Amino acid sequence: MPLKKIHLIIRDATGESRRKAEELIRQGRVTLNGQVALDPYILADPEKDYIKVDGKLLRPRHEEKLYFLFNKPRFVVSTFSDPEGRPCLGDFVKKIGKRLFAAGRLDFDAEGLMLLTNDGALVEKLTHPSHAVPRTYLVKVKGSPTDEALVRIRPGMSLGEGDRLGHVQWMVIKRQKSTTWLRLVLYEGKRNEIKRIFFRIGHPVRKLRRIGFGPFSLGKLPSGTWRPLTPKEQEKLGALLREAGM
Could you count the other beta carbons within 10 Å of the beta carbon of residue 204? Predict the structure, then answer.
């Protein structure tokens, strides 16, 4: 079996988040073949190496891989539980009855396409900036940005806090009296990236909807609903996995 980073092995075997798995390692609670492992990125073989968390041997999960497309409504948290009691993904997908990961979170007030799966390796492929998976959005902004303002949206644009915009594509879809709709494609997924882009040019975001993520499209999936991949989407997924060497 191919070697994997140890924090990803723990994530996939326990159902914990990647961040939680990294915390367990840095707290000295993980051993690899009898030695304490403090580096989350050390490579191991989940089938052959002995990995323990708090003294308990991990056993790889061999379960059917599940993939669902979900249309997240606005004002829903992109996690499967929320300590503040706000609506969250878990409220919508209880019937699936499986521990799932969300590929590509959306802000609380954003809506649109998400991939829900128990395949942690695929989530890593889709969301890691190094893989440059395209994310396509419809964005409604305040006012009517001039050409001079829009031309500032280009690679290298300052987003503040030391961040720079990566590869980006955009086009104006519709200008209205007090708002403008644009289609935007990004490839990295920085925190609040779209809001920061349009704040910098003086046209704050009023509405944000993701309509495409990697090889998948939102289509006519109703808000708040989910569905398994179609045979054609499964073919696209297979091509993505082969490209990633998975």
Answer: 11
Identify whether 12 is a catalytic site residue. Answer: no
Q: How many CB atoms lie within 10 A of CB 159?
A: 18
Interhelix angle 6-14/18-26, rounded to 10 degrees, is 120
Residues whose CB is less than 8 angstroms from the CB of residue 4 and which lie 6 or more positions away in sequence, other chains included: 43, 44, 45, 46, 121
Confidence label for 245 from pLDDT (cuts 50, 70 and 90): low
Q: Return the domain boundaries, the chain.
A: 4-57, 67-130+215-243, 134-213
User: Which of 39, 49, 91, 107 is flagged as catalytic?
Assistant: 107
Quick one: tokens of 48? 């052959």
Domains 4-57 and 67-130+215-243 share a fold: no
Give pLDDT tens digits for 54-68: 988 887 666 678 899
Residue 59 — φ and ψ, nearest 5°?
-125, 130
Q: Domain 67-130+215-243 classified CATH 3.90.340.10? A: no
Fold for 4-57, please state it: 3.10.290
